[in-house]
Amino acid sequence: MMPKLCDAKEVTETGREFRVTTAEGAWFVMIFQRGDGIVAYQNVCPHRFLSLSWAPDRFLIGDDGLLVCPHHGATFELDNGVCVQGPCEGDKLTPATVRIENGELWID
Predict the structure, then answer these.
(1) What is the CATH number of the domain that holds 44?
(2) In what order do the strands lie in the sheet with 25-34?
(3) Cα–Cα distances in Å, from 44 out to 16, 65, 70, 83, 102?
(4) How many CB atoms lie within 10 A of CB 94?
(5) pTM for this prediction
(6) 102, exposed or middle or buried, with CB in 10 Å at 0-12, 13-18, 19+?
(7) Which pLDDT band, with edges at 50, 70 and 90, does 16 fall under?
(8) For the chain, what is the mean pLDDT?
(9) Residue 53 contacts by C-beta under 8 Å, 6 or more apart in sequence?
(10) Helix (H, G, I), strand (E, B) or coil at 10
(11) What does the pLDDT look like over 65-104, one tens digit per residue?
């Protein structure tokens, strides 16, 4: 059984970060509210495989709504995970599968 992350209402447009531990190991997931839904990705930039958070549970979101890598300035569309500018342009973030059940957010 995969872990509960939080109550769904705790996820905002500025994002949340969670450490997930499975039989395969530990990894970090970042989750953002987008309109009426949410999007989730592994917290790893495809350029140098560094975290996209600048501090624990903190992300840079530009005025244009794009996620900005704090290390090399790559920018990502949150709706689809595509890098639209920077050293990994055209690459995509790795999606994470989450679900909302009874107002709680779970990772699959």
Answers:
(1) 2.102.10.10
(2) 16-22, 25-34, 37-42
(3) 14, 18, 12, 12, 29
(4) 14
(5) 0.92
(6) exposed
(7) very high
(8) 93
(9) 17, 28, 30, 43, 59, 70
(10) helix
(11) 999 999 999 999 999 999 999 999 999 999 999 999 999 9
Partnered with residue 75 across adjacent β-strands are 68, 85
pLDDT at 3 over 90: no
Q: Using CA atoms, how far apart are residues 1 and 84, in angstroms rounded to an integer? A: 35
Neighbours of 70 (CB within 10 A): 16
Identify residue 55 by its one-letter amino acid code.
A
Structure tokens at 60: 């840079």
User: How many separate domains does the chain show?
Assistant: 1
* Count of C-beta atoms within a 10 Å radius of residue 77: 16
The CA-based angle 39-41-42, given to 5 degrees, is 160
Residue-number span of the structural domain to which 92 is assigned = 4-107
